[in-house]
Amino acid sequence: MPPPRTALAVAFLTALAIQPGSAVAGLDDPADQWLPRSDGAEWTYSWTNSSYSPTPRTEQLRLQARSGTTFRLRWEEIGGNPNDIPDAGAIDFQHTDAGMVNLNYQSTPPPRQFPILCASAVECGNSVAGAMHLLIWGTRSPVLAEPLLRGTRWGSQGGADSDVASDNRYAGRERVTVAAFPGGIEAAKVESRITQAGALGDPFGSGLRTVWWVRGVGPVRIQLDHASGEVSRAELQRTNLAPLAPPSDANLLPFNRGDRGEYRWRNTRHMKKWSLQRYEVAQVANNTAQVNVKHLSGPIAVAGTYLFSTRLSGVTLLSGATRAASRAKFPQLGPRGASQADRLRFYTPFDFMVFGYNPILPVPADKGLLWRSSREGRDWKLFGVTGVSRVVSTDSRVRTPAGTFRTTVVRSRLTQHGYRFGSGTRTSWFAAGRGLVKLVFRHRDGSRSIVERTR
Asked: Which of 170, 191, 363, 365 might form a disulfide with 152, Cβ 3.0–4.6 angstroms?
């Protein structure tokens, strides 16, 4: 492209705090969880291993205590084998914005015939003998990443000394039949590739595990296909909990490693030619993604990097940095009092999408949900924007150069005091599995910025 008429500009964004008023899934609700912490909750599981414990063993679990979002389950074996120590133990969990984590566990040792899942048999705290042991094997932090959206993947660790690793993915919804629900029940299916290395029995400690989760109940079936050939299974026999309807698993802003796409954008007054840019998701760790943006053609030569986090509280911008050389002249943006180097710039489609305050998008994005900015916190200091956002539609069709999409529409009314170009109405269209497909920002200076997905 010809040499730009303006000097190189650098813009930085960092947004860590989720603003009050955002649409947050109810961590404080003890019942509406993938594993509830409801008072009086009880579960009965049976479990087997095809080689080392082929006769079913039965465990009764109950909620022993809870405080805030942390809770303890205690279990004991019912009618066990007189030749084995009766199975008993306790396990602590916490519901967090990133999902459910295992804080601690203690139990009787596994039956003597089971392989040793440590480098030494002395003081070995590892076990897969029992329903809860199977559940957390290789996946203690988190046990279950949330929100569970299509395409969600995460890494985790487990074992007493975090010596077991796993690669996990949400495999969608599936109807399963178990003793507790003989008529069948819809469950969320999670698959985990588990690897243990260095233990005496590490082929037994490695394998493919599948867990079927029912909202409001917990895991109803667990199956671990060991690398050594055995199969361990646990199944829910009875519970006093009632299943709940699961939240939507539509992923309106997916960031999976390797995802890429192209956008074009222009402004009807300040940049009438399209700027074409490509993005690629470079890295993902525990639902936090690094997204890189680069210039393809048009008046703005830009390179940018953004970090986006997907949590129960929504999709938020953690940080962003862009370097750009632009032939287009744009009105100045705030926030008021910021130095020239810290002034915001609109250089990429993501700059328009994240402008104002977090979250960018609630999870799930149900029609009518509303969230507001706050005059406190990091977002206010970085953007200086007041406003309100609302999900105005969950079934709106929109046409772009990339195709026609059924979308969820979010409308935000934004005011950056003293800056008409930073104020106005932004409408964003999000398509499940594709992310942002269109955005129109009607600025108060009379111009419009238009973003369209092209591929």
From this structure: 170
Locate tokens 């509830």: which residue?
Answer: 36
Q: Give me the pLDDT at residue 7, please.
A: 28
Identify any residues that bridge with 443 across adjacent strands, giving them in sequence order.
424
- pLDDT at residue number 340: 72
80 HSE (CA, 13 A, CB side): 19
Give residues with Cβ within 8 angstroms of 110, minimum separation 6.
Answer: 127, 128, 129, 130, 133
- Burial, 245: exposed, middle or buried (Cβ in 10 Å; 0-12, 13-18, 19+)? exposed
Q: What pLDDT is recorded for position 231?
A: 98
Return d(Cα 193, Cα 167) in angstroms, integer: 5
Domain layout of the chain by residue ranges: 9-24+250-453, 42-239
Residue type, 395: D
Please state, as a whole number, how many other Cβ atoms lie within 10 Å of the Cβ of residue 208.
Answer: 13
Q: How far is CA 70 from the centre of its chain?
A: 20
Look at residue 60 in the predicted model and tell me its pLDDT: 97
DSSP string, 179-207: TTEEEEEEEEEEEEEEEE-SSTTHHHH-E
To 10 degrees, the CA torsion angle through 94, 100, 106, 110? 170
376 contacts: CB under 8 Å, gap ≥ 6? none
Give me the residues of the chain with pLDDT under 50, please. Answer: 1-25
Q: Any idea how long the chain is?
A: 455
Q: Note the pLDDT of residue 115.
A: 95
CA distance 303 to 293: 6
Q: Tell me the C-alpha distance between 49 and 144, whole Å.
A: 23
Sheet holding 42-49, edge to edge: 144-145, 99-107, 88-96, 70-78, 53-67, 42-49, 231-239, 218-226, 207-214, 181-196, 164-178, 153-158
* pLDDT, position 26: 81
- What's the whole-model pTM score? 0.89
